[in-house]
Design a protein that fits this description.
21% strand, RNA-binding, three-stranded antiparallel β-sheet, alpha+beta, Helix Hairpins, BirA Bifunctional Protein, domain 2
RNA sequence: GGAGGGAUGGCCGAGCGGUUUAAGGCGGCAGUCUUGAAAACUGCUGGAGCCUUGCGGCUCCCGUAGGUUCGAAUCCUACUCCCUCCGCCA
């Protein structure tokens, strides 16, 4: 959510951001409603002051044993008038809030302009492309042949897009997120949390998934709860409505959760294998930081995510997303894409964003600044990034480490988590 | 699921119709003292909004939403969450 004061003063910048991010919000209408609202507030405050003064006088008169009935009558009329004004305010405020919640964050100045993914900019590449002296197989073939991935039975149990990992495959999945959590907690200074996998509407709205993306969320209608699409939601909401001490900042959290996405707008896309699924595992990184440091913290966050891919020995590239490809709440985003030779594609395995104070304003997370006497209260900046998303990382491992006979070598860093196993074979 | 208790500022905690302009403590900030720090002492210190060049002024906020009243943290109703006990249960 943007600052209404900022919108009032910079409507053109807001209109630009709305257009660049392919959103549609009537800014003129918002500015008009806001002006109406402030006029109503002013009127009701003037009257309320009179009411307060009148009430005080009644109190004094009664203490002196004098008759106050005329004044009581007068105040009753005034009170009714105020209630009328406030009723109109009550109608106006939700309208303004609804518009505010639909305005996207403004892209940072150095974000490239562009309509879609084709305008993203490659920032750097890492790793060397493996040369195959045979035709590399896609992961679904490798996984099925090794009996570590069973898509048919996953679909039987639940539906397509719900993968079933078996045997070494299940253990590999577990090894991966344990490895990532250990790395981030032990080497990068993150505190591990294990949050609920269901969240309420306020949490979903706080991080910006609602109201825009409701069709993409799995929902438990009876309790108005949602399955988490990412650990970002429960973890960022951890400090909702809190004022943090500046000494606590920056706060780094990492969390494993399963993630659930309906992928409502993506039917027919990436239907084979487990590139795009409805349930997947992910280790997430979340930061609460001082505003001055947030872009520096974003660079560090990206490095922390990259470390995972480097240790796994996976070739990847880092993209800076253009205005049209960024998410609603983000002001700057880097994507990490791992190379998958079997499907012959770059796969997005991480998305790291600085939200500045956009989420902090929605979830009302502030900190007391030490500079001013008594401490001025300011919004924190929030960031998050995948560190990293599993099924696609698993794809990259299977496809990059495959051998001609269909077996797959296990990256060295994972072996301690695999009981020392070096090769997956039939 | 049943019975009871509770929710007040960054935290703890008093207040239960009208000097509440929300006591007091802790924490935070500044200062005195000190080689420095600690301790001690002194002062300042809730949040949101509106008006004002500034000084400052005003309004709202005591879990949430309604209601009663000239006036509500305080009384009434509903809801949410937390705690204790009972039942059920992985």
């Amino acid at each position: 959510m943007l600052d209404l004061n900022f919108i009032r003063k910079n409507p053109e910048a807001v209109r630009t951001a709305v257009r660049e991010k392919h959103e549609r919000v009537d800014i003129d209408q918002l500015v008009k409603l806001d002006a109406d609202r402030r006029e109503l507030i002013y009127q009701s405050e003037v009257l309320r002051k009179q009411l307060n003064e009148g009430s005080k006088r009644i109190s004094q008169l009664k203490k002196q044993g004098q008759d106050a009935s005329n004044l009581v009558e007068e105040m009753r009329a005034l009170s009714d008038k105020i209630k009328d004004l406030e009723k109109r305010l009550e109608q106006l405020t939700p309208e303004i809030d609804a518009l505010l919640l639909r305005i996207p964050n403004i892209p940072a100045p150095d974000v490239p302009k562009g309509e879609d993914a084709s305008a993203n900019v490659t920032v750097r590449n890492w790793g060397k492309r493996r040369e195959f002296n045979f035709q590399p197989k896609p992961h679904w073939e490798l996984g099925t042949n090794l009996d570590i991935l069973d898509l048919e039975r996953g679909a039987k149990i639940c539906g397509s897009g719900f993968p079933l990992f078996k045997g070494v495959g299940a253990r590999l999945e577990r090894a991966l997120f344990n490895f990532m959590l250990d790395l981030h907690t032990q080497k990068h200074g993150y505190k591990e949390v294990f949050p609920p996998f269901l969240v309420n509407r306020a949490s979903m709205t706080g991080t910006g998934q609602l109201p825009k993306m409701e069709e993409d969320m799995y929902k438990v209608t009876e309790d108005d709860l949602f399955l988490v699409p990412t650990a970002e939601v429960p973890v960022t909401n951890l400090h909702r409505d809190e004022i943090l001490n500046y000494k606590e900042l920056p706060i780094y959290y990492t969390a494993y959760t399963a993630c659930f996405r309906r992928e409502a707008g993506a039917y027919g896309k990436d239907t084979r294998g487990i590139i795009r699924v409805h349930q997947f595992d992910k280790v997430e990184l979340v930061k609460f930081v001082r505003p001055e440091t947030s872009y520096e913290e974003l660079e560090k966050l990206v490095k922390d995510a990259e470390a995972v891919l480097q240790l796994l020995g996976l070739e990847y590239r880092v993209l800076k997303l253009c205005t049209g490809d960024m998410s609603f709440a983000s002001s700057k985003t880097y994507d990490l894409e791992a190379w998958a030779p079997g499907v012959d594609k770059w796969l997005e395995v991480s998305s790291c964003s600085n939200f500045e104070d956009f989420q902090a304003r929605r979830i009302n997370v502030r900190f007391r600044d030490e500079s001013a006497s008594g401490g001025k209260v300011r919004y924190v900046h929030t960031l998050n990034g995948s560190g990293v998303a599993l099924p696609r990382t698993l794809i990259a491992i299977l496809e990059n480490y495959q051998q001609e006979d269909g077996s797959v070598i296990i990256p060295e860093v994972l072996r301690p988590y695999m009981g020392g196993l070096e090769v997956v074979q039939r």
